[in-house]
Design brief:
It is built from 23 helices and 21 strands. The chain is of the alpha/beta class and 669 residues long. Among the domains are: 278 residues, Alanine racemase (TIM Barrel), CATH 3.20.20; 92 residues, Methane Monooxygenase Hydroxylase, Chain G, domain 1 (Up-down Bundle), CATH 1.20.58.930; 47 residues, no CATH class. Strands 4, 13, 14, 15, 16, 17, 18, 19, 20 and 21 form a ten-stranded mixed β-sheet that branches. Strand 2 and strand 3 form a beta hairpin. The longest helix is centred in the middle third of the chain and has 23 residues. The chain is globular, with a radius of gyration of 30 Å. The two termini are 45 Å apart. The N terminus is likely disordered. It binds pyridoxal-5'-phosphate. Pyridoxal-5'-phosphate binds next to helix 12.
Length: 669
């Protein structure tokens, strides 16, 4: 085995009283951001506080910010997608090794042959890397559309490697598949609907080679989690058992029982519970056994995708955790199949899985610069209102003093109603200040002081609430303070381009700072993106804290960049972006580990970000036309004497220069 042993899930840490910040260690940072849980052994924090990646514990780690710095020297700036090609390879190896181990230990009588479903990440280089890493294991591909078929077919160099064609297929696709079979390619159309079977039979009629096909079965087992609809009676695809019986009759009358070579099911992505996997495999195994007894030529059983990845890594009830490891998944498939086949006395079929997410998720990450923060400013602790200050300032200061004073009569804490009253008073006075300002009675400086006083009062009340967590019920108004007091970190990315599943299905992704992890994070922030959409924010985070509505971060020092890493981007996310708000693909660098190189790696490929011109072309705006329009606008201004010709030329140049730029912000610190 070349890949690192898989990390076992560890129980979620109980939120405990925090040890003092002086005892902060990089191990505590790893715990806080749950790196070991989602990182699968690939990620860790270096002693210098920088996040690093390696494919095995004895490999030398690559500091992610080294890659960012080198990309910068080559003129590529973050936001930046980094693909760790070695991680992709390692995942392919781990999957195949896990099945090989299960097959060996179970004494299973056939092999495992995985296929990679390219819809998970169709990027040419990803597909090529998976194929290359999977070659020793006889790995093949899976496609689900015409475009994917065209892309995948050209990559089937090895005749033995399988191409499984799922999804709805038209006559031209089926003809192509049959032709490929005729030249000896192992391309298997999987019948999704009964009428596809009829079409396939009629197209094959007259050909000298008997068609080979698979069938997708609509199981009564259904998946769980956010993608539950893919299996069971409600699923979009699959042939029911009565339809399967009709198919068998048709094949029998055409003397083509050996044409049906593969059985397939797919329960949906991210199967949370291993029991569902076992149940599905047993169900298909019984169908397989009965078909063998009826003389059909089934040789492959394909258990589809769904092998889960731990994104949120918590065992909380609002999350759908994956309750098994890669090895347990492989064991479940192999042992369940063996058990049923042995009981029925039929030969063990070759096992196929279409694990996509589990292969690609870990290998890519997004580096996102923080552009700035918005904090709730508090008042200077030494502040005292003077005779020139407005009454409303004096009143707010009075409330602040109350929240600072010791509780009356030796009680340790204040009554909740006292806190609530202070909050109401503060809110009222702040409202007064706003009204006075609107009417012109309060200068800007006084309004700023009023806001600072207000936030300081809120902060004090919030601090006092902390002492009594769990002891008394907290009124909703005061509970809401928690969120109001969070910082906002403005980040150079788009939720819709880069973490679409977060917005659409609430999928959490691990996010954490890439540096300063040897310092305790002293701020609590929510991340907001560049889009003008109010949904353009991250609303829950991966951490070991009980409250995951914010990300623990470091205060910005304004002098250096502060970079955040978004992880497990490789499955579905980094190819799914839809140019929301016309943000394009971010730039990419592809990294290979190499101990001979200075920092333990080299950059093999740099792909620039989509340019403005490219995203505009997608929505039918073209530079010539835009330039002509802009020219016209500028000429009219020159004619009208609003600007001089050189200024007009300069403006046009500035405008045209943007076409070749990335769609993201260029930050020059
Ligand atoms: C999407 C899909 C897959 C991949 O599923 P993962 O959960 O990513 O492993 C496999 N097979 C079919 C038919 C699919 O639709």
């Amino acid at each position: 085995m070349t890949a690192a042993p898989q990390s076992r899930p560890e129980p979620a840490a109980e939120p405990q009283a925090e040890p003092p910040a002086s005892e902060w260690t990089v191990e505590r940072a790893e715990e806080l951001y749950r790196v070991r849980r989602w990182g699968d052994g690939f990620f860790h924090v270096n002693p210098d506080g920088r996040l690093a990646v390696r494919t095995s514990p004895d490999a030398s780690p690559i500091a992610i910010l080294d890659v960012v710095a080198e990309a910068r020297r080559r003129g590529i700036r973050a936001p930046l997608l980094i693909r760790f090609q070695d991680v992709l390879r390692a995942r392919v190896q781990r999957l195949n090794d896990a099945f090989a181990t299960a097959v060996e230990q179970a004494g299973y009588g056939a092999v495992y042959r995985g296929v990679y479903p390219i819809k998970v990440n169709q990027l040419h280089e990803v597909v090529e890397e998976v194929l290359e890493a999977g070659r020793p294991y006889g790995m093949g591909l899976e496609c689900g559309s015409k475009g994917e078929l065209i892309a995948a077919l050209a990559h089937l160099e090895d005749d033995a490697a399988q191409l499984i064609c799922n999804g709805v297929k038209d006559a031209s696709m089926l003809r192509l598949i049959l032709s490929a079979q005729r030249i000896g390619k192992n391309v298997i159309p999987v019948v999704e609907k009964f009428n596809e079977f009829e079409l396939l039979m009629s197209l094959a009629n007259g050909g000298e080679v008997r068609p080979r096909m698979g069938v997708r079965i609509r199981l009564s087992t259904s998946g769980s989690g956010r993608w539950a609809e893919s299996g069971g009676d409600r699923s979009k695809f699959g042939v029911s058992i009565p339809e399967l019986m009709n198919m068998i009759e048709r094949l029998r009358s055409a003397s083509a029982l050996d044409s049906l070579v593969l059985l397939h099911f797919h329960l949906g992505s991210q199967i949370a519970d291993i029991q569902i996997v076992k149940q599905g495999v047993k169900e298909i195994a019984h169908i397989y056994a009965q078909l063998i007894e009826r003389g059909l030529g089934v040789r492959w059983v394909d258990v589809g995708g769904g092998l889960g990845v731990n994104y949120e890594s918590n065992y909380s009830d609002d999350d759908t955790p994956i309750n098994y490891t890669l090895q347990e998944y492989a064991n479940a498939v192999v042992y369940a199949m063996k058990e049923v086949c042995d009981a029925e006395g039929v030969p063990h079929p070759t096992l196929v899985s279409e694990s996509g997410r589990a292969i690609t998720a870990h290998h890519s990450m997004l580096v996102v610069p923080v552009l700035g923060s918005y904090r709730k400013d508090s008042i200077d602790p030494e502040f005292k209102p003077g005779p020139d200050d407005h009454t409303v300032i004096h009143e707010l200061f009075g409330v602040l003093k109350e929240t600072r004073a010791k509780p009356k009569k030796k009680r340790k804490t204040r009554w909740m109603w006292e806190l609530l009253e202070a909050f109401h008073d503060a809110a009222e006075k702040r409202g007064d200040a706003d009204k006075l300002f609107a009417l012109g009675y309060l200068p800007l400086e006084q309004k700023a002081t009023a806001e600072r006083l207000y936030w300081s009062i809120c902060q004090n009340i919030h601090d006092m609430l902390k002492d009594r967590e769990g002891k008394t019920e907290v009124p909703p108004e005061l509970l809401a303070l928690d969120e109001h007091l969070l910082d906002q970190y403005l980040c150079d990315f788009s939720v819709f381009q880069s973490i679409l599943d977060h917005w659409s299905i609430g999928q959490g992704f691990p996010i954490m700072p890439l540096e300063r992890l040897n310092e305790p994070p002293d701020r609590r922030a929510t991340l907001v993106d560049l889009t003008c959409d109010s949904d353009g924010k991250v609303d829950h985070y991966v951490s070991n804290l009980a409250d995951r509505s914010f990300l623990p971060v470091h205060g910005l020092n304004g002098k250096t960049h502060y970079y955040l890493g978004f992880f497990l981007m490789g499955a579905y996310q980094d190819i799914m972006g839809d140019s929301h708000n016309l943000f394009g693909r971010v730039a990419e660098v592809h990294v290979y580990a190499d101990a001979e190189e200075a920092n333990g790696y080299y950059i093999e490929k740099v792909i620039p970000a989509t340019t403005v011109e490219q995203v505009l072309a997608e929505v039918q705006y073209f530079p010539n036309d835009l330039q002509r329009r802009m020219n016209e606008i500028i000429r009219r201004k020159i004619d009208a004497g609003v600007i001089r010709p050189p200024a007009g030329v300069q403006l046009l140049e500035e405008y045209m220069r943007c076409f070749n730029e990335s769609t993201y912000i260029e930050q020059d610190v």
